[in-house]
């Protein structure tokens, strides 16, 4: 029988999932930061042996990785240069020309990935309508190429003014560079980000060039290693948009892999929400390094076309490097199992954003870590079984966890468990605060939503987080500890194409627009079809529109059909409906224009139907009891222990309890009831 593999590389753990029909196996191994593929291969070999599956029976491998993100954050990418229109090399430092922290006199801006001495301008100029005002100076390009060769440049980003309307100069520059600099990676803005707004387009193209050599080498090596293992199935990559794509596309546009892991988790959450008919939900993914939260409304994820990486101020918009790519909108917090706890100058507990990672790891790992972390707190509170953590691969040392927590306990005049309770409460409040801000920024709230918890640490903290956010229900899916990897296997093969073509609706040109969408469809299909031969493809279109004179646009859904000559009336109607939803009212008698058009093409992955109600059944007798300190009350309680694989649909019991499985542990506090639904998911309900 054929099998499918999913691999998710995180900051602390690499998760591997194998699905064969209705059967699944999962495993966690420590990430190897110096060579991420080493952990991947270790996990793949282990899971194939555990499942007694032959490598040749694996028909598909889907992979998500933080490698591109980490290269940008840690500034460990290629030695990169920028070639741009003469006079515009400083646009990446000028950015938006505003202060993201108005009153901070010590404000630090993010440093560009390309230093000023490696940014070069060449004479050329294209007008906003695509007309050539100044021909490309090819001799100047060759002179720059000679300088780049002398500097030992590994990658080049090419971004000329208005190349999104006329790409000829960028194409010709790429041809010259390929001739003069064989082997150097070249990224063109007309391919990576062919849309308006110079700073974002340049930043995205530079980011793509910066990570391209490392990612191309890594993906090529991993693909070859998997074939050596005997796995013949194709390797596909998870993108930040929630779709998966081919290795060839990922090699060309590795910037689209930024945030690929969290995107897989969001896809899983959407599936789980559908199975529970939870139309309003929050996806909560807490791993070893970070926590991520995503809002769902009417079973739809929030999406965006811009994302910031490597923020100088972790939670401040505008303090990072913008990348203009399709992305699932989420908030990310430095609050994972490995997040380090300390006391600030006022003696208050602070948690994160720095993490112990996989090396040396939390103190309880016994691998040399000495600073207290969230995992150490959970261990000291009695929530974790030291013999079952990560499927038993990493035995926990409670004595070392408590010893590390003493650095907090002394100044706080408490014991190790008291310090652990403080750490747990602070990290839960940090996540709750981030979720509230994220919801308010999007004009939403968190109350009365379902919280879908996955990732190794999320089920430990989900019930307390839900209560802080006014939620009454928590859902823990099957395989929650490796949730993002499971999400990879439920994602569509997809690709999005974007083009900027300015059009006023009073000057609507149906012929031009139909030709544009036909070309976009062909480009998207060329990426999607090789990975999905014979599958039904679903197309969706959007226009980014505004009232004339406004500085920014809103996304307006478009019909998936050719535009008639009188389609301007329908486009205006759709724009006004969307504008009213966002701002409360439309503005009469103002002209409307569209700047950017997008087309997404994806394989059809229908959502599952809601799970059926099952008859109530008695839970089995607990396998034991363990004393657990509840940070919310400060009380020590005897929590009943249940093995998750012993719990069947319909079973129900009250807390306090711990539901133990290889990838995680679900904490059921007092005042919560746990039940198992038809598809084996744990549903916690607040009785208070």
From TrEMBL:
<dbReference type="InterPro" id="IPR043129">
    <property type="entry name" value="ATPase_NBD"/>
</dbReference>
<protein>
    <submittedName>
        <fullName>Hydantoinase/oxoprolinase family protein</fullName>
    </submittedName>
</protein>
<dbReference type="InterPro" id="IPR049517">
    <property type="entry name" value="ACX-like_C"/>
</dbReference>
<dbReference type="Pfam" id="PF19278">
    <property type="entry name" value="Hydant_A_C"/>
</dbReference>
<feature type="domain" description="Hydantoinase/oxoprolinase N-terminal">
    <location>
        <begin position="4"/>
        <end position="180"/>
    </location>
</feature>
<feature type="region of interest" description="Disordered">
    <location>
        <begin position="353"/>
        <end position="372"/>
    </location>
</feature>
<dbReference type="InterPro" id="IPR045079">
    <property type="entry name" value="Oxoprolinase-like"/>
</dbReference>
<dbReference type="Pfam" id="PF01968">
    <property type="entry name" value="Hydantoinase_A"/>
</dbReference>
<feature type="domain" description="Acetophenone carboxylase-like C-terminal">
    <location>
        <begin position="541"/>
        <end position="678"/>
    </location>
</feature>
<dbReference type="Pfam" id="PF05378">
    <property type="entry name" value="Hydant_A_N"/>
</dbReference>
<dbReference type="InterPro" id="IPR002821">
    <property type="entry name" value="Hydantoinase_A"/>
</dbReference>
<dbReference type="InterPro" id="IPR008040">
    <property type="entry name" value="Hydant_A_N"/>
</dbReference>
<feature type="domain" description="Hydantoinase A/oxoprolinase">
    <location>
        <begin position="201"/>
        <end position="496"/>
    </location>
</feature>
